[in-house]
Backbone:
């Protein structure tokens, strides 16, 4: 009888031991659930609308070297996160061309944190009247303010660069070109200041190209990435202040 009891107890211990081992095997063979991928948070990124012509689209430089793109990148590196700027610009555009482009294909967002406006060199080059430029520039500036959420402090007008210092202007009346650029800049500056928006003078910087070929792109007319960085670096503190 005692032997029978011993055998029965041994069997029970063995069964219990197997059940425990089986349970351990089941839990350890269940594959681990992969971690949920981290999706970058773009909801807090600031928005940037850049309106203009060849100087804004960055003719003859890489997309990454356009001044709005360089400025957005610098701001992001400084802790003010910006998405890729939306650029409405094309080489050769006058104020009338930019107005038509916005009418046909408006900006994709109702408002932006920052809006820049740089336009007028082709008005001068194509000998458009200053009266026409003044009227159309004011209309464009009002649009820029609208797209800045009616916050005038978040609009930046950039002056027209002076291409008289480039190889493209060889054989032209450089003094006349410079004088006319100054006249058009007097108009956009007056309108900008009268309407309470920021104004950034990049004309003086552009004229340094007269003695520094590295500031001119390979086409002999437009700024190089180095010159665009100068503009971007000057724009960054203006934007920082505007966002405070």
Residues:
């Amino acid at each position: 009888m005692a032997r029978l009891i011993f055998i029965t107890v041994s069997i029970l211990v063995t069964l219990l031991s197997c059940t425990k081992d089986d349970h351990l095997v089941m839990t350890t063979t269940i594959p681990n659930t992969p971690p949920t991928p981290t999706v970058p948070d773009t909801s807090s990124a600031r928005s940037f609308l850049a309106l203009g012509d060849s100087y804004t689209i960055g003719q003859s430089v890489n997309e990454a070297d356009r001044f709005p793109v360089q400025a957005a990148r610098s701001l992001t590196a400084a802790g003010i996160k910006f998405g890729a700027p939306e650029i409405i610009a094309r080489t050769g555009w006058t104020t009338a061309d930019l107005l038509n482009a916005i009418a046909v294909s408006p900006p994709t967002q109702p408002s932006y944190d920052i809006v820049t406006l740089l336009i007028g060199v082709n008005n001068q080059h194509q000998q458009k009247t200053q009266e026409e430029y003044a009227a159309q520039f004011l209309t464009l500036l009002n649009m820029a303010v609208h797209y800045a959420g009616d916050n005038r402090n978040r609009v930046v007008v950039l002056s027209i660069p002076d291409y008289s210092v480039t190889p493209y202007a060889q054989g032209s009346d450089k003094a006349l070109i410079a004088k006319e650029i100054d006249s058009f800049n007097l108009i956009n500056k007056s309108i900008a200041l009268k309407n309470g928006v920021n104004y950034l003078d990049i004309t003086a910087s552009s004229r340094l190209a007269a003695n520094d070929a590295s500031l001119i792109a390979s086409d002999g007319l437009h700024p190089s990435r180095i010159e665009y960085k100068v503009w971007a670096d000057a724009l960054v503190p203006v934007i920082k202040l505007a966002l405070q």
Notes: The two ends are 92 Å apart (CA to CA). The mean pLDDT is 87. DSSP finds nine helices and five strands in the chain.
